[in-house]
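Incident log, structure service

09:12 report received: a user says their structure output differs between two submissions of the same chain.
09:20 pulled the input from the user's history:
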Amino acid sequence: MLIDQLEFANPYWWWILPLPMVIYWFIPAYRTRQSAIKVPFFDVVAKALDETPSDGASQLTPSVWQKAILILSWGLLVLALTKPTILGEPQTREQLGRDVMVVVDLSGSMAERDFVSSTRTDNGERQSISRLDAAKEVLSDFVKTRKGDRLGLILFGDAAFVQTPFTADQKVWLELLNQTDVAMAGQSTHLGDAIGLAIKVFEQSGDDETAVKLDNTIDIKPREKVAIVLTDGNDTGSYVEPIDAAKVAAAKGVRIHMIAMGDPKTVGEQALDMEVINRVAKLSGGNAFEAMNRDELSLAYDEIGKLEPQLYESTTYRPKQSIHYYPVMLIVIMYLLAFSLVTVKRYFKAGEADV
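09:34 re-ran on a clean worker, output below:
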């Protein structure tokens, strides 16, 4: 309803609404002096004209329509002073304060079925799943806690590629994550190249600042850049060494959290180089985690969530449109019409008198 959308910016002006009545009751009316002719037979003339003698001044008495215009004009003037405002539909302004790039290893070792699912079978037992499937389950829960963050997804193996550019649409991000499969980027682990690509995507995103306009003020804050790298093997032939990539990330303001998935005692290409993983995290200002099972993997993402709390802010407001000029327009129109009608009436009366 319109009445629910109406508010008055200066409601205290309503107090002057009865002011004309106060003036009418307590202040004498203005009287105009008129000239008179003195005659010795005044009483005879008064009786002949059937007039009652009064004081030597006269008071102008407005007609009914003049009183109506005066009252209506005063009410409209007070209404304009209160500045009536129409409220628009509620709108929500959101501030997105962090970019999070999730980097997932798709090398052949991610097919190892040494993790268990969070769901249980009919027998009450947990089913063995691959490392990649476990990562998908945990990431699905992790994403739900990142309201307001823009998420990206990079997959790597023999090469690294962007699966999802930065987006605030969590549903789309999860769908693209679930479409991934082991070895779709190759069998090896080019960890350094994946970190380098993440830095490049941050640079190309072009959103280094977040501008929020509230109450006619603009608050500009640098957008935080965070990369979460999940890997289960050591680097195997990247063009850019992971340590060098971490140094560049630190210079560019990109914080990297490393999650080592699997048994660090494994040997061969699947071995985890924890020294490199720890150095990459430390150089970039992040943290390193080890996850030998699904619970530890989930705990690692929980810890990252605590280290990178949400910067999301939501403000609901209603746009306002002042309509105080409409009462003023009505007053002007009324007086123009009244003046025009009186002028026309006098014109016709003058014409009849000439005849």
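09:41 both user submissions now match this output. Likely a transient worker issue. Closing.
09:42 reviewer note: Confidence is low (pLDDT under 50) at residues 209-220. The longest strand covers residues 98-105.
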